[in-house]
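Archive maintenance. Older records in this collection stored only the sequence; we are now back-filling the structure field for every entry so that each record is complete. The fields below show one back-filled record exactly as it appears after the update. Entries are processed alphabetically, and Adenylate and Guanylate cyclase catalytic domain-containing protein is next in the queue.

ARCHIVE ENTRY
Title: Adenylate and Guanylate cyclase catalytic domain-containing protein
Organism field: Mariprofundus ferrinatatus
Length field: 466
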Amino acid sequence: MSLRWSWSLFAAFLTLAGSAVMALSIIAVERDALRVERDDYVRYTLSMLSGALRMPMMADSRTEVDRLMEEFVATSPGSIVYLRWANGESEQFGEGVIPDAVSSLPSHHLQLLSVEGQERWYAQGVNLNKTDLGVIALHMPAPEEDVYSSGKKLLIAMVALLLAMLAGALMYRFSGTLTDLMRRISMASRQVGGGDFSVHIPGYGSGEIGEAVGDFNQMVSRLSHRQMTHEVFGRYQSPQQVSDGFERTLVNTDHPARTVAVMAVEMVDFAGYISDLRELGGLSELNRFFRILHAIVSENGGHLDAISGGHMVAVFNHPFNLRNYQDRAAKCALELIEASKMLSLHRSDGSTVAFKIGLAQGEVLTGFLGAGRHREFRAVGAAVSLAEHLALLGSEHDVIAGGEILHQLAYAFEKSGVENRTLAGGESLQVAKISPKTERLIAEVQKAASTAIHHLETEGATGVSK
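Back-filled structure field:
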């Protein structure tokens, strides 16, 4: 039996069992309530009969007494009335057996009471002033015995069965999402195992299932990137070795135009920081951040395009094709901001060095620029200039995105302060501040930043270059 059917039958069984327990509980509660209500009614009726019999019994009018009792029994089917006069004579009205406990009741000033050991039998003395006229006992049938007839019990059973079938159908419907995902992951895993890294499972929302799908797609994307690196260099390499080898290997290669995501990083008040470098130990502190920047960019599948003073540019979806490269660029930017906070570069006045980042998307030309030893592989285009411009718009620790990339970012990214800005050429552009929206993304950003810093500290302690 498939897992989907097992879950459906289990849900149906639980619903059926729950319905049965609930029905039995309701029946028990209602029967108790009906019994109490019936007992109160019998007590009230007996009290009324006792009051109605006082005058006829005082006048010894047996004809009137018989008439009253026969009328009562006729209007109350199943009732039994036992009447004993003060002289010991007794009468019975209605069909049934009079218990000995009822026939032996005392008649002297008998108050309304329940006959001990006899269910639904009540007795009361008939008194006028201080004169004992006799005793009357009354038994009335309990209607709750017929409340839940076979037809009603069958109806309850049918409703419970219908609820169980509905629960099973709903479980079968909703469990289909999970079993479908499991089949997709199984099929995708077989494709990846066969060397096909183009596999991508569509999103399943923002819950736990969506997170599992996102993790799987991210894993496949990283494997694809590693495989392409292997095809270029013949073996797997660390990010630093890939970057160095890439620059050496592609000396005479020019690439056509392609669409990329560009991340521009600007240090706040770089000129002021430069003036403090002598007191702060030269460029070593700044180079620490550059190494972290390089590691985080490489981990997200990007390529560090340029570093010039306090200005840095990274490109995503180049030189290799990347899935969701816009999300990778945004996540990389958030990780860099988090890492800069953790690293805490300080100025001479004790303040902390801060960075701000711009994100853009567009078509660029890629190839080598320059001549001789100053020839570098670069990406050139309006998207690079736009990202650099957006970086200048933000404040400390801000990530500002504008244009097409805003519409491509996943649900996990919060877009706040959305507004239209006019560029230098007069073009209007929608921009927004980017921040992590989900707890999962917040945790991933913090973990990636702390991991990069930890690797840097380990590298410094061991003297090993990663």
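Update note: Residues 237-462 form a domain with the Alpha-Beta Plaits fold (CATH 3.30.70.1230). The longest helix spans residues 3-58.
Entry marked complete.
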